[in-house]
Amino acid sequence: MRPDALAFLRGSDEIIHAGDIGDPAILEELGKIAPVTAVRGNNDRGPWAKRIPHANALKVGNVSIYVLHDVKELDFAPAAAGHRVVVAGHSHKPLVKENDGVLYVNPGSAGPRRFTLPIAVGELKINGASVRARIKELA
Length: 139
Known about the structure:
By secondary structure, the chain is mainly β. It has one domain: Purple Acid Phosphatase, chain A, domain 2 (4-Layer Sandwich). The chain has two helices and nine strands. The strands form three sheets. It has a five-stranded mixed beta sheet, with no helix packed on it. It has a two-stranded parallel ribbon with strand order 1-2.
């Protein structure tokens, strides 16, 4: 784990990991900061990864968040299912985009640099039914 990513996450109420975890120790470390909702990425292999679901959901305040690794595998309409946010990580390209009332967030990668993409984390600020997202690039 990058120390600057851990520092950014301190004080979080929840942590979402959108896959490509790499090592179960990372989830343990994140769990010391806040409860973790994680999904398995295509690079998560081995017996430990079999415990991690391919998709997950959580509710924070009045906001339902659906988490999967590859947004291209989303096979239903998230808004119709009651989800306000979809978090995915497969491309590792940081993104915040709203489409049809659903906020799509890719936090990027806070671990190893992926391709020439920035090192980044995402943040969701939730207040009741209101949600804002931002990407924070790390050094």
